[in-house]
Design goal:
Layout (H helix, E strand, L loop, with lengths): L1 H19 L16 E2 L8 E12 L6 E14 L2 E15 L2 E2 L3 H6 L3 E6 L5 E5 L2 H10 L7 H6 L2 H16 L5 E2 L5 E10 L2 E17 L2 E11 L8 H9 L9 E10 L7 E10 L2 E15 L1 H4 L1
Antiparallel strand pairs: 1-8, 2-3, 2-14, 3-4, 4-5, 4-6, 6-7, 9-10, 10-11, 11-12, 12-13, 13-14
Length: 300
Amino acid sequence: MRLLRSYSLLLLVALASACSRNVPSLVPEPGAPPPPRLEFRPPGGAVLTESMKSSVGRGGAPGLQEAELTTVTRFTPEQGGWLLTQRVTQARYTRDGTPVDTLVDDVLTRFALRVRLSGDGTFVRVVEPEAALAALNAAAPAEQDVSLLEGFFAPEALEARTREEWDVKYGGLYGRAWDTGARSYAVGTQPLGGREVTYLLERTFTGTQLTEYGEAMVFTLRCLAAPGAEAPQAVREALSLAGDPELTPGVQCEGEQLLGRGRFLPVRRGLTLRATWGDETWTWTAKSQLESLQAPEEER
């Protein structure tokens, strides 16, 4: 009897000891969630209304120029990709806060910008780029010299400008997963102080943020100086795609961009760029904000 009790006690101790050890569980523990991925899924048929504001000025000097636009954009599935159609519904230009009537504002509201995109959001081409020049000819008074505007709205100029703007805002962002701290690069140009500034933009993924349009991915923006021989491959590729341009020295910029995670939504973007030469510092600021997302039936 005593032997049985001793055996039972040893068994009890053994069981207790076994329970105290780290015995591997048969149920696998959940791993870290995969990094968020951006896929180009525009809200087909819906209407996106955006407000856009930009300003150009020289530090400490009068003559601050500001422009405000309201655009409506629709994406239509087409030929395995997308057709973007965008109209300017309102345009306003001011100098030192005083409204100025310009022919440009009139032209912008007279034509629709139509852009063909691939299924992954890559820019393909502008459809009927001659529409802008036709709108200029229809809006301009017969006696007014519009030769400078003809160059600005020429089909090849419109194509190049639209391609660059799209690539700077969205190029290299879609069709990939984003770990925190991951980066992408793009080359942009901006007329400033009578010169054309060429800059290298770096986008860094910092996390996600809940907005009124759902979860958005957040990217910080900054400009980089001319890279050296040890520049990352992604930087060299971005410069090569842009034709290896010479970057303007003395350029700095900072900003932030929020993009919808589950579908293409340009929730918010802001960029401030400064260029200094001599004793002059010029500043260009551009901001855009998604104001509404309207379903087709709501529009009707």
